[in-house]
Amino acid sequence: MKPGWKSRSRKSFRPGCDPLEERLALSAVAYHPGPGLPEGFTSTSFFHQVLQNPPGFPPVRPNTPVLPYGAGPNTASFVDVTTHVFNGQHVIISSLVYVAPFATLDARNGYVKVGSGSTIGDNSKILANPNHDKIPTIVFIGNSTVVGPGATIEGPSTIGSYQQNSAPVSIGANALIDGATIDPGAFVGPLARVGPGVTVPSGMYVLPGVNVTTNAEASNPALGFVRAVTSTELSNIKTQISDDIQLAAGYANLYQGNTATGASPAFSPTLPYVNYGYLPAVSGSSAEPGAKFEPGVKIPMFLSTFKGLQPGAVSTFRARVIGQVTFIARATQIAYRLGPSNSIRADQGQPILFASAPRTGRGVSIQSPVQGVLKIGHNLIADTGAVILGGPRTSSSNVSQIGDNVTIGADAVIDRSTIGAGALIGPRSVVQKSFVPPGDVIPAGTIMIDGKVVGHIQW
What we know:
By secondary structure, this protein is mainly β. The protein has two domains: about 45-240, Hexapeptide repeat proteins (UDP N-Acetylglucosamine Acyltransferase, domain 1, 3 Solenoid); about 285-455, UDP N-Acetylglucosamine Acyltransferase, domain 1 (3 Solenoid).
């Protein structure tokens, strides 16, 4: 040692004892079925059943936003780029699924499986284990299931079936499935709740706003909680499923490119559907993908300062605005007034016309699920979680209208209705296939169907 140098103290650099991250191995997890096991799930190998019955893929790279990576239009599922996915390795999505803007797929300490031909709606929430219990719980969503805008499904729940040609299931806007089983062919109305351990049998429609807590309530129409599903409702949901399958293929094509954009040399030629894709084409304010049921490919329109209405494809726009949505206001004003996680989609029914910039809260969803025109007047106020749905093409009038200076409360659902100018719709109300006169006030929690108040939200 040289003079003046200090001796270094010897330190041991052994690795510390870090706690292991808690993980759930699909091959070894103890299944906790809750309200029941779907048809076909009999093997002790839970991993094999979830992955192969039917086949599916986790929405993790490279399977984002198209699943599986490089899939063609006959098999592709599409997960909107705004979707919130937690623990994606435990989320399994089958073919021909459309996951709409701002949906949440949360598989923390649990699992989520979505069957073929299903739709997870705008701002909906699929929560495998909402209480974060140590025992993993599961949400099974079967084939041909439509989860409406703002709806919540909490595990352990089983929705529909994975059998081919199983009857479709519909979960209404802002409804809550809380640890329940919804059999194939059963429907749940908007803002209805189905409680833990309850099974809704095939052919039953849970009425809007009710709180179903027993199997008797779920199966006996005489008790006032359910009725039979109508042929029109069944036809409408089949139309929506067909349309959404086309949308999934269309968005996959927009993102991955097509033969017109040319094959990308960065990818293997064995993936013929991966071309020069373009992420901004499926982000922010963008064009609809084009489908057989759509009259051409449309793009959102905004008011410019000197040139009138102009197309506005803005990938960084704070809301998801798709298709023939027209705002008689400038894009900057619209963006300023819209709350976070707003979804305004004219890729099913169109056009959607705004006379001015609306003022909205968080998680507002506006669309026409089975086509029809939606006209919205000046100065609309829509609070957090509000859902506005236009009318179907099978109605006597395909136009739903919201008048000037209308206020729609938080979590309210407006479905195929006309709301007169100056009307106020209270929070957590359902207005379905109704006309609300100008200036009327619908109290909070009111259920109005076909122009009549039929009850109040029970939960």
